[in-house]
Amino acid sequence: MTDERYAFVVVANRLPVDRVLADDGSAAWKQSPGGLVTALEPVMRQADGAWVGWIGQPDEHVEPFDNDGIRMVPLALSAEEVEDYYEGFSNDTIWPLYHDVIVQATYHRDWWDAYVAVNQRFADAAAAVAAEGATVWVQDYQLQLVPRMLREQRPDLLIGFFNHIPFPAYGLYSQLPWRTQVLEGLLGADVIGFQRVADAGNFSRAVRRLLGHTTRSPIIEVPATESTPARRVIAKPFPISIDVAGFEQLARSPQVQERAQQIRRELGDPKTVILGVDRLDYTKGIGHRLKAFGELLEDGRLSVEDVTLVQVASPSRERVETYRHLRDEIELTVGRINGDFGTIGHQAVNYLHHGFPREEMAALYLAADVMLVTALRDGMNLVAKEYVAARYDEDGVLVLSEFAGASDELRTSLRINPHDIDGLKDAIMQAVEMSRAERRKRMRTMRKRVRENDVAHWSRTFLRTLAETRDGEGAFDPDPLGDLEWTVDRPPRP
Ligand code: GDG
Q1: pTM of the model
Q2: Residue 131 CA, ligand 1 centroid: distance in Å
Q3: How many CB atoms lie within 10 A of CB 436?
Q4: From ligand 1's centre to the CA of 221, what distance in Å?
Q5: d(C-alpha 207, C-alpha 444), whole Å
Q6: Which of 66, 150, 239, 436 is the most buried (most CB within 10 A)?
Q7: Residue of the nearest CA to atom 5 in ligand 1?
Q8: Whose CA is nearest to atom 33 of ligand 1?
Q9: In the prediction, which pLDDT does 493 show?
Q10: What residues line ligand 1, using a CB cutoff of 6 Å?
Q11: Is the pLDDT of residue 128 over 70?
């Protein structure tokens, strides 16, 4: 490990970098894609802190290093741990359970044992690099036990936890064989952040019912034990966002604009380009979207001469069986639609199963008249916010599932229930036919909202709430947060 100590430490399953091999065979680091990285990276850069996380490859032992002003503290996982803790418990137990069991959650005691052991190692690694009284911010569902494990070793720390995915209703959560241990793990934090009001409510309800603690939103009273004093924990929503200004700047660059026009030309200059961008995940409702689009072609309400659907489905979790099935199912559906409705000159669905650079994503957003976000359940959905941030021309229509956290904020999108295929079809038609004046009005309102709540606002609000849970003034040193305007708009103490 390292002897250096940091006043601000992020703990996440993954480090925000991937190891790549340069042409000459030497190793280099490249920023990896994904919601969490996109959201936290700008904050870390400004805060000059340390980030504890897995390198992304099994059995890789790498010494801590600096990357673009962020201290990286890699944690090694064995192939077996990756299988049981990551692909197993995290992605095949917690992920489906927390996304309302869209697919069945799998419960294995071996996976749970690995989850406990790996969470302990993350907690140990964070404890080793955190300075006295440091702030430690633990991220996401893979590390729910870390807050308590960390507090047991280091009661001096200020501990935050943010859950990027939904927290399920009690009726579903109570399936989890280790439901009390997970709640107790999370309650080791001083502040537990969720995406939506409903998620925070579900969590508090589970705490009341399973542990019997008193809750008075947003406060949870954790009673004293033989060895620990009584504590107050805050559980409330902090809707995550993106680097709005950075994204808009990218979209405004001449190269991206040129590329957006080129994309439309390459698609054969259709009247309407519809776009979907998702990790290939069953939570994203890609199948529902394809069904609606296919039926619109079949009904003759849309024609392939006029409309093209571009679907980016970036590869995800390909070692988990459910994901392999999903890929087969989606690709079969795309093939059917193209076979049934395509012509020599016009493809109905342009399906892309690979990742793209950020510039290409921005160009796709600019090229798209209609953006489809049809998630069956989604913590937030940053793609929806990126589309809005990219549309500096105040054009484009966002069709947005009410089951994505983003729909709480983006209220002038066309909000849909993706299970209601007829409703989804009507919304797509409304989007395709919407007047320029109405598109502008709706987009303007959404742009105002995302500008007000960008990722800096998200992290600032969370960290300020965290700092204020500590008795007395100045217990947390705000200096590492530099330009984040730490002291503005202090809300009243809860
Ligand atoms: C989890 C929660 C929550 C995707 N493909 C490419 C690419 N991406 C980028 C998108 C976006 C991010 O990945 C995806 O973020 P989402 O929010 O849409 O979804 P999840 O990955 O499921 O994220 C989610 C999020 O955490 C944050 O809290 O919103 O609800 O599930 O930024 O642009 N980026 C690039 N190439 C790709 O091919 N460059």
Answers
A1: 0.93
A2: 32
A3: 9
A4: 34
A5: 40
A6: 150
A7: 314
A8: 383
A9: 32
A10: 33-36, 38-39, 164-165, 240, 277, 279, 312, 314, 355-358, 361, 378-383, 386
A11: yes
